[in-house]
Amino acid sequence: MTETKRKTLVVDESGAGDYRTLTEAGAAGAATPDEPVRFYIRHGIYEERPFIELADYVIEGEYRNATVITASVGGRDPWPGEVKTGTFRSATLFLGGGGRAVVRNLTVQNNAGDGAKAGQALAVYADASRVLMENVNLYGNQDTLFTAPLPLQEREQNGFRGPRENTPRLDTMQYYKNCTIRGNIDFIFGGANAVFDTCRLEPWHHISGTCYITAPSTPAGKPGYLFVNCTVQGSCAPGSVYLGRPWRADAACYWLDCALSDEVCADGWDNWRDPENEKTARFGEHGSTGPGSAAKRAFGSVDDDNEANAQREMYARVKAEFGVE
Fold first, then answer.
1. Percent of the chain with pLDDT over 90
2. Rounded to 5 degrees, what are φ and ψ at 59?
3. Suppose 144 and one of 74, 158, 187, 269 were both cysteines; which one would form an S-S bond, judging by CB atoms 3.0 to 4.6 Å apart?
4. 95: which residues sit within 8 A by CB, 6+ positions away?
């Protein structure tokens, strides 16, 4: 992604910058929403829930592990006039605006706790047309990272309550480089076309004893998720983690040249209680290593060279789109 000239707003919780919070800086940027802007956040713990709707912005932390944006909102929390907050109003950080969003060198977390009690709790709702994250930690439990768009139809009444429930479902392209993403139930989910490059996926123990890394809702004909040169290593019991399950029938997810810990179960994929999904979901892997790898999975392809070459071509296109080496 080519860098452009942009103004810089410094965020410092001590008051030594232009603003004390990213929320305040984002509101200032909204006065000229089409002007490219960089938010530079000095180290500190920022307890806030920024909602960014700008055309072209960069959010950059001073230190990856010491610049932390944090909140503790779960989907089961109350919401004024309604029964609950719901998944899509729980995000610690919302990245919107319809243009380009770049996030670098910081941590975003949702500390609401185990989804069995707190419900779904997003660390990030990634909704901009182009999202690039580099050297970022995303920590949560259930539904840590939502990669928009939403599916066309909700399965439960008011299930999509939130900032995009009544808007068109627009394609997004997303690229995650050298990121650590932690969670337990469907902790990377949504309908984006997204590449995860040299990332660390950390399945975290869940009260149910079973974890699912991904839950794509890929629209038909779209490429979905690609994990390349990634590592799976968390805190779960051996054989208790699935690479993914289909949130919608056409879900697409592929793992290419990844190292899988013994936490990954032999079946690899879960059909979300519907065998018909095994006929439509586009799941596969190639070149997996480690004790979690397998010559055959419950469904999906393993080590199909033609599929792997197509995924490598997609990987090259996405890297070129974002200008990432």
1. 97
2. -115, 115
3. 187
4. 52, 101, 103, 124, 125, 126, 127, 128, 131
